[in-house]
Each structure stands twice: as structure tokens, then as C-alpha cells.
């Protein structure tokens, strides 16, 4: 049997590992635009010079040296023939498979504003090639505008600050964000402000609640300033765009693979697409946008591709970790309360903890500083287990409050 995996990221590589384990005699072809295997979560460390490409490679075994595994790298597929299970770059047939896994991740969104789409000095941050361009540009840039203060935008700023420190430079970095806080989809305002202060202490300026409406250029293809609603002009010689991603599914047009309203690949519980034998996993499937889930989906898809039916039932995707300058945060579920929710906050000099209770059931938790116990909170939130009525503060609740013993001595969940 021949398996074709499109993408050498978290989902694709984890699927390849699983196929090789399950069916060592089967053949696996991986096709990727990437010429290197690397963790996207670490590309800011590449910008900062903390890591090189080899040290962000996340394959720690001889997968790609396996005689049944072929990796075709540096090829951008432009078409999938769903009926023939074949993929093409232009007119050139690249590979076929008895089963196919689509694991192409996401692409950075470029807002259709001013010259952002065409400028020579404006980059997204998704691929190692983007990180290389940003690292090069930042070495010379005096003024850098970062559009978007989410995790990717702040990753870019962090990498640039690291690089600047090493080079003894002090570029002026301005972050522009439409939302009223940084990290608005990861953390609440209080926890996000802690990061904003850490960046500000290193000279970074934030324009929150601000919208980019235009750019000005030098007439030679470079942006020289980013214009904000209200008249503020942010001069710059490097622009980083971090305003979001969309599934990398454009090459599937005409393939017969159905997409969702959000243009992600539509999958069933077995991660199979609308075409039998063709699966999707990771960001492109739109079930979540984080690394561990992409890996897990790749593994589950691989089980299904090799004949073991395995339903992917972990649709809980609302978890975020943030770590800048040694300050760790984790959020699970709801970040901000809805009307009628109870909010419990515990804070000291080094820690911030917030729990949102919806009808006595944890709906969300934010842990900043010390993030221990997150597995416990995840289970309570996912399984909707009430913590009110146990006669103690929800902060004092632990596994011991829920576990009993089976007659054979095994632990059982009793709530
Ligand atoms: C800067 C940054 C920081 C991040 N930080 C975190 C974090 O801290 N924690 C976390 O959990 N997640 C983080 N993420 C998200 C995480 O990296 C993604 O969720 C994860 O990489 C998704 O894995 P994937 O396999 O679906 O796609 P990807 O890892 O994006 O891999 C996609 C693969 O498909 C290939 N490909 C795409 N299109 C084509 C095509 N047409 N033809 C051929 N090959 C193609 C690409 O070359 C690549 O090999 C971060 C992402 C970025 C960009």
C-alpha cells in the first residue's frame, strides 16, 4: 500500500511516524513546499539567533532515512486530482497514493491595505523562509511596524528583540492591534497587560484599538510608513503582518474535496474528507490551530489510513500557552465571562489565576506564573464537571475529590 502525505509539518510528520509503526512494509511519500522540517512554534527563536534551522527540526529519529519513506521537498502542489488520487505542481505529476493525507497547515493572511500585499519589506511569519527574511531585514531596520499583537506578532517582536540585543542594536518597534488588548484570543486583559508591560519595558510601543488603513511607500516597492485610522502615521522600514491565518486549501479547488464555510477541509470523525481514502489533519482541517492537536490529528488520520478505525473525538481546542521573558501563562476554555458567570480571581506578586464558573461548572481558567494543575482543570472544563457544592473553595478542589476505588483497586472517576 502507498500513502501520500501532503505537508511535512506537525500533522504530516506525525502521520508518517504512525504509518511506519503500524505498517512498516507500506510505502510513504511526503511532499512539501518546505525544504526543511522545523517547528513553526520555534521560528521566532531562529529570528533571535537562539536556534538555527537544524535545532528546530523536530524529527528525532531516522524517519526520513527509512527505505520505505520518500520525501519530495521544495515542491508547491497546485492541484489534487481526487478521483485519480494524484497531486500536481502545474502540469507535472508529482506523486500518487492509495490513501492521501492533506496536512498543508495554514497561510498567513495579508490584509488588502495599501502596498502590504506587494511590498518588498513586508512579511508574514509562518514559514522558516519568512523568519529568514525577517531576520535579514531586522538586522538593518531602524523602525519596525508589527501589525497584530497576537501570539505570532509578539513572537516576531520577541525574536527581533533577541537579535537586537545580540547585535547591540535598538530598533524602534511599534505594534499595532485592532483589539483593545494584546493576545486577545489567548488571554484576558489583565494577563495580556503583564506581557505588554514586559515588551514596553524593552522599548516596544503599542497602539491598541488601532486600525491600519493605508501605507505609504518610497516608490521603489518598500513601505515607509503605516497609516492608522485617526491620522497617526507609523514610520517604518520593515513591516511584519500577523493578523491571522487561513487554511492552506486553495490548491484543492476542483479536486472534489469539500471545504467548510471557513474554507477548511471538511472531515468526518475519522478525519476522512468527502472523498473516500483522502484524509486531512492539522490546521487545514480547521478543528484547531495548535501544534499538539495537529500532531494528534496526524496520528489519528494515520491509524485510519492504515485500516484501524479510530475516531478523533477531542474537539476541545480552546487552550493556549504563552511564554515570553520567562512569564508563563495558560488559558483553557472561556477567557472572558458571559452574563451570569461567576468569576473567581486569585492573585499575588508572581501569579494570576482566574476561574470562570458557569452554573457551578468551570468554563474557563487562566493561570499565569505558576501553571501547575492545568491537566486537572482541562479535564473539569472538557467534561463539564461541577465544582460548586463540594463545600470548599473551587481553588482547593483536586483529583481526590472526584476519584473513588473500583472493587479491583483501580481508580474510578465518581462525579
Ligand atoms: C510563529 C508561530 C508560532 C506558533 N506558536 C505556537 C505555539 O506556541 N504553540 C502551538 O501549539 N502552536 C503554535 N503555532 C501553531 C502551530 O505551528 C500550528 O498549529 C502547526 O504547525 C500546524 O501543523 P500542520 O501540520 O497542520 O501545518 P504546518 O506545520 O504549517 O505544516 C504544513 C506543511 O504543508 C506544506 N505545504 C503547505 N502548502 C503546500 C502545498 N501547496 N504544496 C506542498 N506542501 C505544502 C508546508 O510546506 C508544511 O510542510 C505557531 C505558529 C506560528 C506560525
Q: What features would you describe in this structure?
A:
The chain contains 7 helices and 25 strands. Helix 1 (10-22) packs parallel to helix 6 and helix 3 crosses helix 4. It has a 5-stranded parallel sheet, with helices on one face. With 415 residues, the chain is α/β, with parallel strands linked by helices. The mean pLDDT is 95. The radius of gyration is 23 Å and the shape is globular. It has 3 domains: 2-107 and 246-305, FAD/NAD(P)-binding domain (3-Layer(bba) Sandwich), CATH 3.50.50; 110-241, FAD/NAD(P)-binding domain (3-Layer(bba) Sandwich), CATH 3.50.50; 326-413, FAD/NAD-linked reductase, C-terminal dimerisation domain (Enolase-like, domain 1, 2-Layer Sandwich), CATH 3.30.390. Strand 14 (223-228) and strand 15 form a beta hairpin. The protein binds flavin-adenine dinucleotide. Flavin-adenine dinucleotide binds next to helix 1, strand 2, helix 2, helix 4 and helix 6.
Number of strands: 25
Look at the structure and name the CATH superfamily of the largest domain: FAD/NAD(P)-binding domain
Please indicate the percent range of residues in DSSP E strands (runs of 2 or more). Answer: 25-35%
- What does the average pLDDT come to? 95
Please report the distance between the alpha carbons of the first and last residues.
45 Å
Corresponding CATH architecture of the largest domain: 3-Layer(bba) Sandwich
Spatially, the strands of the biggest sheet line up as: 3-2-1-7-18
Determine Rg (CA atoms, Å).
23 Å
CATH topology of the largest domain: FAD/NAD(P)-binding domain
Bound ions, cofactors and other small molecules, one mention each: flavin-adenine dinucleotide
Work out the helicity level: 10-25%
Silhouette? globular
The structural domain count equals 3
Identify the CATH class of the largest domain: Alpha Beta
Question: What is the subunit organization of this protein?
Answer: single chain
- The assigned structural class equals alpha/beta
How many helix segments? 7
Amino acid at each position: 500500500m502507498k500513502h501520500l502525505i501532503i505537508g511535512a509539518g506537525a500533522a504530516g510528520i506525525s502521520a508518517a511516524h504512525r504509518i511506519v509503526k503500524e505498517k512498516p512494509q507500506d510505502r510513504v511519500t511526503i511532499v512539501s513546499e518546505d525544504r526543511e522540517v522545523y517547528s513553526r512554534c520555534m521560528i521566532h527563536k531562529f529570528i533571535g539567533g537562539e536556534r538555527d534551522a537544524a535545532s528546530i527540526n523536530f524529527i528525532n529519529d531516522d524517519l526520513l532515512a527509512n527505505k520505505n519513506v520518500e520525501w519530495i521537498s521544495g515542491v508547491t502542489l497546485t492541484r489534487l486530482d481526487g478521483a485519480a488520487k494524484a497531486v500536481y505542481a502545474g502540469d507535472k505529476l508529482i506523486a500518487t497514493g492509495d490513501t492521501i493525507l492533506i496536512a498543508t497547515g495554514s497561510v498567513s493572511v495579508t490584509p488588502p491595505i495599501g502596498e502590504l500585499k506587494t511590498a518588498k519589506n513586508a512579511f508574514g511569519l509562518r514559514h522558516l523562509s519568512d523568519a529568514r527574511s525577517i531576520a535579514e531585514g531586522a538586522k538593518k531596520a531602524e523602525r519596525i511596524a508589527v501589525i497584530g499583537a497576537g501570539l505570532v506578532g509578539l513572537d516576531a517582536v520577541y525574536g527581533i528583540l533577541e537579535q537586537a540585543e545580540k547585535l547591540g542594536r535598538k530598533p524602534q518597534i511599534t505594534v499595532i492591534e485592532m483589539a483593545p488588548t494584546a493576545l486577545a484570543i489567548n488571554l484576558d486583559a489583565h494577563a495580556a497587560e503583564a506581557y505588554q508591560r514586559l515588551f514596553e519595558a524593552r522599548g516596544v510601543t503599542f497602539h491598541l484599538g488601532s486600525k491600519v488603513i493605508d501605507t505609504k511607500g518610497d516608490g521603489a516597492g518598500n513601505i515607509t510608513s503605516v497609516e492608522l485610522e485617526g491620522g497617526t502615521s507609523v514610520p517604518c522600514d520593515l513591516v511584519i503582518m500577523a493578523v491571522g491565518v487561513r487554511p492552506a486549501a486553495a490548491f484543492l479547488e476542483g479536486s472534489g474535496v469539500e471545504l467548510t464555510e471557513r474554507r477548511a477541509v471538511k472531515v468526518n470523525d475519522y478525519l476522512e474528507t468527502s472523498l473516500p481514502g483522502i484524509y486531512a489533519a492539522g490546521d487545514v482541517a480547521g478543528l484547531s490551530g495548535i501544534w499538539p492537536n495537529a500532531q494528534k490529528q496526524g496520528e489519528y488520520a494515520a491509524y485510519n489510513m492504515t485500516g484501524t478505525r479510530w475516531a478523533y473525538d477531542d474537539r476541545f481546542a480552546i487552550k493556549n500557552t504563552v511564554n515570553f521573558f520567562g512569564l508563563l501563562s495558560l488559558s483553557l476554555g472561556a477567557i472572558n465571562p458571559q452574563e451570569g458567570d461567576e468569576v473567581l480571581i486569585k492573585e499575588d506578586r508572581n501569579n494570576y489565576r482566574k476561574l470562570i464558573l458557569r452554573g457551578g461548572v468551570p468554563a474557563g481558567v487562566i493561570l499565569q506564573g505558576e501553571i501547575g494543575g492545568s491537566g486537572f482543570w482541562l479535564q473539569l472544563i472538557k467534561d463539564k464537571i461541577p465544582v460548586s457544592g463540594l463545600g470548599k473553595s473551587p481553588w482547593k478542589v483536586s483529583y481526590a475529590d472526584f476519584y473513588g476505588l473500583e472493587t479491583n483497586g483501580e481508580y474510578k472517576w465518581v462525579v
